[in-house]
Amino acid sequence: MIASDTYIVLAADSLHRAGEWDSALALISGGSGADVIELRARILVDRHWWRLDDPASARAAVDALDPASPQALYLGAQLAYTRILFGLDPLDDDARTAGSGFLGAMRAESLRGWATFWLGVVADNVHRDPGTAHVRYTEALKLCHEAGDLLLESYVVRHLGGQAIERDRSQGEMLLRRSLHLRSALGARPQVAAAQVTLAGALPEGPEREMLLEASAATARELGLTWLLN
To answer: What is the reported pTM?
Structure first.
């Protein structure tokens, strides 16, 4: 990839993180290299997760990847889990697709931490197995620390905080706040909005809770974050 293409991908990645999916897609619209094809698929799958828009473009983008590649398995698993979680006409084998896809994605070192985390989420929210989920989250936390992946850490500690809140409220709140602060520092605006709602749900009625919900709603309206507006 030539230097100018590299800069375009980096810029698109930044827009993607900020929830500016359409602008990111426009920036890479003329590209056809492998990195661009993969990035387009990541952006479209992520946009679908947050907006719950028509999944056809996301599916087509994933289908454009090598179906045996860790990235295709990972993104296909995300689409399957999205259908399950939000009740979007899930397929009979979506739970199996999600589990096998995330397991297959662990072959790629760059995806190992993320795939481990999502296996925990599937255990938690699909199989109702918080014990296995906790083991996966703990493994993912170790991997994200090794990789220095603060965005992944923000996801992991949010779920560990959610598990901790019932048995140790102060520990749970601390983890939820860490998730919010990490996402804010990284400029991950959709994730910030979600973290604000999660933290607000763990707080009693009061000014901080109302402020968090107001800020989250403003971001959700601006970026079109469908499930945060409901």
So the answer is: 0.95
